[in-house]
Structures are given as structure tokens and as C-alpha cells.
Amino acid sequence: MTNNARPWALGVLLLGTACAPKLPPADAGFVAKWTATHYALARAERLSPPNASRTSAYAAIALYEGWAAFSDSLRSLAGQLNGLAALPRPSREERYDPALVAMEAQTVVLRSLYAEGFASTGVAISALHDSLVGVRVTQGVSEPIRRRSLAYGAELGTAILAWAAEDGFAKRTFGYQPLKGAGYWQPTTTTAQYRSQNLSAERDFVGFDNPTAAARPGESGDRSITVNRPKRPNTTVPGINPLVAMEPQWGSLRTFALDSAGSCPPPPALAFGSDKASPLYAEALQVVEMRRSLTEEQKRIAYFWADNPGESGTPSGHWMSVVSSLSEQWMLSPERTVEAYALTAIAVADAFIGCWHQKYSSNILRPVAYIQRYIDPTWQPLLNTPPFPTYTSGHSTQSAAAAEVLTALFGDNRPYDDPTHITLGHPVKRLASFREAAREAGLSRLYGGIHFPMDNVGGRMQGECIGRAVLSRVHTREGP
Predict the structure, then answer these.
(1) pTM listed for this prediction
(2) Which of 148, 151, 167, 479 is the most exposed place for a label (fewest CB within 10 A)?
């Protein structure tokens, strides 16, 4: 292989092989099945939202690069993303199957990133990989092309892993001493809440026909799963611990496209004040009143967008699920799907880095702490409060960033269906646009009682800035 930041076009790669039979076309299911699997794996592994966003971003880039290497229109991200100078390029003289290359590259990345995960996770990745390889062989991809494509895909995935290893993830630490003072954040989760979230819910037996151990109609019951296996700490895929600060150093990780974690700052947060004339007191009163007057529809919105770790694929997984659903609803091509997948994943990952940088810089207490201390000691939010500072809202930030990217790709005011949480008992949700979805996701945290209004407003502004910055920096199409 050779290194070059610019991919060869498919026509150049096939120069001299014009008489060879054409490769069978691959449908977008080769991409959509992976985005759906990401959601399932993040849920099964109980990844924290920041961790899930990082995993999805590297996997999405690997899948994208596999297709871009043979595309007449897609442009490699090498030379565009921070620290990614170059990637291996395919030989000019050989034929490859883009679907197999992309799939193998992403598989190599996922197997490494989940290497310390549950056994069922490895089974799920291998099962999907092997089944899709079998499909391509059945469709007519020859053995030489299969071997060559898988070898190049592995080389591509290995190069992406080498790049990922330098992002600061392995060097971050978890020890964090909350600041002392009335206005600073302190953990608010109880031991009882932690106990319920610390169970893995992984089955003792993993069937190859159901590698993610998903509950299916007719087989769910107290004997079908075990819930007595906590996740091992200090691994590359640690489970969440709501009793301590979640990922206090996440804001120091290398960004994907942003110049720095602080390059899209939100407006300054309101200053702390406990007297009734304080603007923050007024915001807390809004949270109290909203909780008191919640409608059934607002409760449904809060639960739909909750995306709790361990119960779902996390907020970042939700947007990956949306991309998967769009691929099927709108019958997108594989190239269009990997483009949306990569850009959305990059924007969401950078949004988590930027948001976490802001959270631990401002370090503001959560509404539940403020309200119980200064307004009503018996008050409780609708949702459990997550273990990190309040400003800005992670849901608002990453949803706004995703919405900016998807709106740029597919247009504004384009309705779509979101079936992400059918397995959690939610019906398919119809949304008028990506920006409406982002606004609703942000408001859901106010309905849940876990954010001040300023968290939502600041997060939305921060996320929109991040989405625009990603679009300005990362160019997926050839040409000016």
C-alpha cells in the first residue's frame, strides 16, 4: 500500500480491468446495520455518553474511509481531522470491494475499542462482520477480491487505531475532588440509584442467533437474564458510576475537528446567588414550577430523550440510531449514509469534548441541590440527575451539533420518524426537522428537572457553533 491524503477514484483503480466483471452493488444496509449495532453495544456495555461518542466517531470514520477510498465523490478525512496526517491507500493495479474494505476497517476498530468488554460484545461484532462478508461472497465477490479487500480494510483500521491512541483517552485520570463552596457541583446520586444502574444485565448464555442478547418477545423473564455482574472498573470500556464525577478530564481530549475544546464557548453562566433576588434563584423557581405543572406529553418527551446509560445507547447513540433510520426511510446510498454517519459522529464527539470542558470549568451545582437547599428540601426531579456539573447541558449541546450537520446534509423542515426507543416501550416519534428534534431534546432535560433553563440555552448555542465549525473544517466531497 502507499500513503496519500487524496483517495484514488474508483475509475482509476479499475484502470486496466475494464473487461473484468463489475462488482455487485452493496446496499446501505451494510452501513445501517453497523449504526444499529453501535447503539446496542453502547447499551450492553453501559458506556458513559462521552465514551460512547468517542467509540462511534472512530468507528464511523473507519467505515467512511473504506468507502471514500474508492469513491469518485467522497474525499478522505486524512489531512482534515486533528492529528490524522495520512492513511494507507489501495494499490492502483488491484481490484477491491468497497463494502468489504469499509466493513473490515470498522470491525478492526470496534474489536480494539471493545477489547476489554463483555464476551457477548465480541460475539456481536464478529457475527455481524461474518454475516455481511458471507452476503458479499454470495452476491458474487470473488475470493481474491475478498482477501485483498479484507487485508486493506484491516490496514486502514489499524492506522485509525494508531491515530486514536494519541487522543489523550488512555492518559486521562478519574480522581476528582469536588470543589468546596455553596455554588459548586457535588454528586447527588444516592446509593440506591447507583445499585440499580451498576448491574450489567448481561446474559450468562449468548446465542449466535442473538449475539447482543437483546430481549425478544416471548422470552423475557426473570430467568432469561442475570443482573448480578457489575462491570469491571479501570478498563477501556468502564461502566458508569453515578456516585462520582463522570469523566472529569474528558474536556482535555484531542478534538476531532474543533481547533480546541474551548473554541465554541457558550455565553457565561449566571453567577451563583441564593437570595430571592438572584437570577439563578429565578431559574430554579422555573424548574420547580415546571415540575409541578408537567403535562403527560412533557413527561413522555422527558422519558423519550432520557437516553440513560445502561438503559439505552446513550444520547450519542440516539443520533447514530437516527442516521441508521434515515438510511432506511429515505433509501440513501451507502456513500450518502457513511457521509452522514461520519459527520454526525464527529460533531457529536466534539460536542461532548467541548461541553465537558465547559462543565468542569464553570462547575455549577445542579438544580436538585440548589432547590433542596434554598427552596424546598423535599423536592425531587422527574429524572435521576447525572453525575457531572450542570452548565452546559450535554443533551442540548450534542443534539444541536448533530442537527446542524444533518440539516446541512438533508435540508431543513424535513420530517422523519425516530424509532430508536421502540424496545424501551416508546412508539415511533414523528419529528418535523432535525432542529426541532434538537430543541425538544434540550427541553426534555428541563422537563426532567435536571437542568436550569440557562443550561439548555447555552448548550444549544454551543452545539450550533460546534456543528457549524465541523462543517466548515471537514469537507467530505471533492471539489472546491
Answers:
(1) 0.89
(2) 479
340 near 332, Cβ under 8 Å? yes
Mean pLDDT of 64-77: 95
Q: Please state the φ and ψ torsions of residue 477, each to the nearest 5 degrees.
A: -115, 145
Q: Report the pLDDT value the prediction gives residue 52, as an integer from 0 to 100.
A: 95
Amino acid at the residue 415? P
DSSP assignment, residue 364? B
Q: At how many degrees (to 10) do helices 314-329 and 394-410 cross? A: 20
Angle at 355 between CA 61 and CA 398, to 5 degrees: 55
CATH number of 234-473: 1.10.606.20
Identify whether the C-beta of residue 452 lies closer than 8 Å to the C-beta of residue 390. yes
Q: Could you report the per-residue pLDDT of 454-475, keeping only the tens digit for each?
A: 999 999 999 999 999 999 999 9
CATH class of 2-164: mainly alpha
Whether residue 388 contacts residue 188, with contact meaning beta carbons closer than 8 Å, is answered with no
Q: Per residue in 259-306, pLDDT tens?
A: 999 999 999 999 999 999 999 999 999 999 999 999 999 999 999 999
Distances in Å between the alpha carbon of 3 and those of 152, 159, 430? Answer: 12, 11, 45
Residue appearing with cell numbers 413527561: 299
Instruction: Give SS3 for 2.
Output: strand
Exposed, middle or buried by CB within 10 Å (0-12, 13-18, 19+), for 315? Answer: buried
Given a cut of 60, is residue 309 above it in pLDDT?
A: yes
Report how far residue 480's alpha carbon sits from residue 469's, in angstroms, rounded to the nearest whole number: 17
Q: What is the dihedral of CA 269, 272, 277, 282, to 10 degrees?
A: 50
Residue 292: partners with Cβ closer than 8 Å, 6 or more residues away: none
Contact between 349 and 367 (Cβ < 8 Å)? no
Q: Which amino acid is at 61?
A: I
> Cβ distance 438 to 399 under 8 Å?
yes
CA dihedral sign of residues 115, 117, 122, 128: negative
DSSP labels, 437-472: HHHHHHHHHHHTTSS-HHHHHHHHHHHHHHHHHHHH
Please say whether the beta carbons of 354 and 163 come within 8 A.
no
Domain with CATH 1.10.606.20 in the chain: 2-164, 234-473
Q: What is the DSSP letter of 250?
A: G
- In the block, cell 441564593 appears at 274
Residue type, 114: Y
Q: Taking a C-beta distance cutoff of 8 angstroms, is the pair 244, 461 a contact?
A: no
